[in-house]
């Protein structure tokens, strides 16, 4: 766990009275937020800026988020700022790192605004990260929160699930996301590095494999990974079945 106080000192009683506690999951595919007041929101993890004067006339001057951004992706400079559960570019030096960091910051701000905080609310956030996120990954999350939250704690996602459910002993948590599959062994104490594991094979890998297999079978089909993601989420299941799933795919411009 890593914690950062992002503001100066204040009277404890005033903070307690005005504190708004937020749980945040900045996911590769979807991002979610829940407040202590019972509000919950989930949006697709996309941020887009209008490309030109025409797109600004259509969508306005401000960044666009979630499903709206995905549906208007041809009119936008579109970013999916989270990759494998962390902000893109924090593992290696990447030219687009600054833009992804800005997109992640705006996504976090948008999520917090969906909770409709009051003007005087002090915002405390707990942000989940993959089991084996590095210190650099966590620091990037804290950097995003600096202008949005008054205080933030970064915690392992599978650990937070186990702790929230009260399953803190003799439990193995498996969290299958879009970017990573995380495992955490709980044995009555805060898990260490040896108790946690992140695998880079998860939902995105399924989408890529589906795209690869369909393209190989139907080489003339005009297909994107986003289309495969939508089909997987609409029709996917884990059970024995002989039912067929049929979808329309453009071939030479015709379905």
What is the string of helix and strand elements? EHEEEEHEHEEEHEHEHEEEHH
Which stretches are poorly predicted, pLDDT < 50 over at least 5 residues?
none
Radius of gyration: 20 Å
State the share of residues found in helices, binned by percent: 25-40%
Beta-strand residue fraction: 25-35%
Q: Let me know the average pLDDT.
A: 86
SSE layout and pairings?
Layout: E1 2-5, H1 12-18, E2 19-26, E3 30-35, E4 40-44, E5 47-50, H2 53-59, E6 64-65, H3 66-71, E7 76-79, E8 82-83, E9 86-87, H4 97-114, E10 122-129, H5 135-145, E11 151-156, H6 157-165, E12 169-176, E13 181-187, E14 196-199, H7 203-217, H8 225-235
Parallel strand pairs: 2-10, 10-11
Antiparallel strand pairs: 1-11, 2-3, 3-4, 5-6, 5-7, 8-9, 12-13, 13-14
Would you kindly provide a written description of the structure presented here, covering whatever features stand out?
The structure is a single chain. A hairpin with a 2-residue loop joins strand 8 and strand 9 (86-87). The protein has 8 helices and 14 strands. Helix 4 (97-114) packs across helix 5 (135-145) and helix 7 crosses helix 8. By secondary structure, it is an alpha+beta fold. 33% of the residues lie in helices and 27% in strands. A 6-stranded mixed β-sheet has the order 1-11-10-2-3-4. A 3-stranded antiparallel β-sheet has the order 6-5-7. The longest helix is centred in the middle third of the chain and has 18 residues, at 97-114. It has helices at 12-18, 53-59, 66-71, 97-114, 135-145, 157-165, 203-217, 225-235; strands spanning 2-5, 19-26, 30-35, 40-44, 47-50, 64-65, 76-79, 82-83, 86-87, 122-129, 151-156, 169-176, 181-187, 196-199. The protein starts with a strand and ends in a 20-residue tail after the last helix.
